[in-house]
Design brief:
The chain has 269 residues and is of the alpha+beta class. The chain has two domains: 117 residues, Arc Repressor Mutant, subunit A, CATH 1.10.10; 122 residues, 2-Layer Sandwich (Beta-Lactamase). The chain contains nine helices and eight strands. The strands form two sheets. The chain has a five-stranded antiparallel sheet. The chain has a three-stranded mixed sheet with strand order 1-3-2. Helix 1 packs parallel to helix 5, helix 3 crosses helix 5 and helix 7 packs across helix 8. The longest helix has 17 residues. It binds zinc ion. Zinc ion binds next to helix 3 and helix 5.
Length: 269
């Protein structure tokens, strides 16, 4: 498989679920990565590492995952290990040295193997079976995202990406730095499109996020300037600063009133 092939996310997630099944993983507490890796023939060790958060080394039927000891968060470390385990399960034929060059694999995956390894890691750490019931009926809120991150011991970033996928409401997660959008992810098939490098609007919480903000309404054109208003759209947002990084995470909640009578538009949500 070349790096230009389209990523096969279904297969990646299916393989993670197969690992859950084989190892009888049914609760968040069961997701002990070192044990899972060991059961799959891979030994995990921490140590010094340059140029990547983690690396996979193959020695025949045995694997070794080296993870950077000084990664700042447990959740980020877990994601890095799960990502390498994804390469182990999915990419046996690839040279490991072409993989995982990004500083933060969860954020900047840009080739098929990296995207597949992230999909595997997301499913391994936050199984759909366990995560979906916690998200699908939830009212979009960063408190739910933080609770997910705590329960599954993942980074807030990984939990936010998972929440956006599983919540029935139309949400997006936006990462901005220096008041500019860096990247974003919306629920698959949603009508959300955000301009890359969009300057953060002064009216948005993301301009100057407070310690503990609430989900609140924001003018539509703060996030979607120049959008042609074919249907009425309500936008709610909530922002937080990510750990010690200079990044602001914003959860956007978008409600398009496509199927309503024009007369109902001024009604409450
Ligand atoms: Zn990788």
């Amino acid at each position: 498989m070349g790096t230009s092939a389209k990523p096969n996310l279904l297969e990646a997630r299916h393989r993670a679920r197969t690992v859950h099944r084989i190892l009888n993983i049914t609760r968040p507490d069961d997701i002990v990565l070192e044990d899972i890796a060991m059961a799959r023939g891979v030994y995990v060790s921490e140590g010094r590492l340059d140029g990547a958060e983690a690396r996979l080394l193959r020695q025949g039927a045995r694997g070794l995952i080296r993870v950077k000891a000084d990664l700042p968060e447990d959740g980020r470390k877990r994601f890095a290990v799960a990502h390498e385990l994804g390469h182990w399960e999915l990419h046996a034929e690839m040279s490991q040295w072409t993989l995982c060059e990004a500083d933060d694999v969860a954020a900047y995956a840009n080739s098929s193997p990296e995207i597949e390894a992230n999909a595997f890691a997301g499913e391994l750490l936050m199984p759909t079976l366990l995560v979906r019931p916690r998200c699908e009926e939830a009212t979009p809120d960063l408190a739910v995202v933080r609770a997910l991150a705590a329960e599954f011991r993942t980074s807030v970033t990984a939990a936010a990406l998972r929440f956006v996928e599983e919540c029935r409401e139309t949400c997006a997660v936006v990462f901005s730095e220096a008041r500019k959008v860096q990247w974003w992810r919306a629920r698959e098939g949603s009508q959300i499109w955000i301009e890359r490098d969009l300057e953060i609007d002064r009216r948005s919480q993301a301009w100057e996020p407070a310690g503990e903000s609430k989900m609140e309404a924001v003018p539509v054109n703060a996030w979607f300037p120049g959008r042609e208003a074919k249907v009425k759209r309500d936008v709610y947002e909530q922002s937080m600063v990510l750990g010690r990084y200079e990044t602001v995470l914003t959860l956007l909640w978008v409600i398009d009133h496509e199927d309503e009578d024009p007369e109902d538009l001024d009604g409450d949500r």
